[in-house]
């Protein structure tokens, strides 16, 4: 199954089950949770009824989970990216945080900020937590996953590199692309051999199988849940493969008018155009 969050033409929001180019508006069913995060929290994804059918073109997609309590991101989680950045090997995943108000949906513009031209792409697999918990055992971690989505952790590199703390470069408005859909584990199947592929203006710039993660999903969930309780709807962005623009010669920065796509097999394709923040305003 796959689900999307959306805004209707009248300005109200909801979520639904995706059937090709149609959406069954599950949030319109009497008694149903009002949001996708609410449905995940209630453990209702497998049971919730289809509601009125909408054409996908008649709604505006929102980030898969518009209101996650936490967005935890893993840095340098593919050996190719660790090597290109010159980072030392580590025994534990590098974790940084992204704010929910940086998120945008599929087809919405990534904003290149006024203060920098060093805007980079980072295609990633996002994991959405279904069942919360603290100190989750690694061998039980995958049972806590509600589903997967594509993520583009667009990074403002000069601001990221002001100090050793990543937060400034990872939290500019309109830089966390997340979508288009949440795909359940049963629908996604085994993702080990599925590739994370990023294209910039139709040119492949990143391409690596998920099995190449240094720290696999279960280990990340176990590690993160040791220091913070995970809740339904929380998001973990699992890291980007090598090939980022900052480590190319010359650097390859995203600019206004560019189109960037993140494709992850059955998880789908996330597409965004880049717009200068000044023009968007």
State the CATH topology of the largest domain.
Fumarylacetoacetate hydrolase, domain 2
CATH architecture of the largest domain: Alpha-Beta Complex
Low-confidence stretches: none
Number of domains: 2
Number of strands: 19
Q: How far apart are the first and last residues' alpha carbons, in Å?
A: 37 Å
Domain Fumarylacetoacetase-like C-terminal: 70-275
GO biological process, one term: carboxylic acid metabolic process
Protein name: 2-keto-4-pentenoate hydratase/2-oxohepta-3-ene-1,7-dioic acid hydratase (Catechol pathway)
GO molecular function: isomerase activity; metal ion binding
Characterise this structure:
With 281 residues, this protein is mainly beta. It folds into two domains: 2-61, no CATH class; 71-280, Fumarylacetoacetate hydrolase, domain 2 (Alpha-Beta Complex). The termini are far apart. 13% of the residues lie in helices and 33% in strands. The model has no long low-confidence stretch (mean pLDDT 96). It contains six helices and 19 strands. Strands 1, 2, 3, 4, 5, 6, 7, 8, 11, 12, 14 and 17 form a twelve-stranded mixed sheet that branches. Strands 9-19-18-15-16 form a five-stranded mixed sheet. Pfam families: FAA_hydrolase (PF01557).
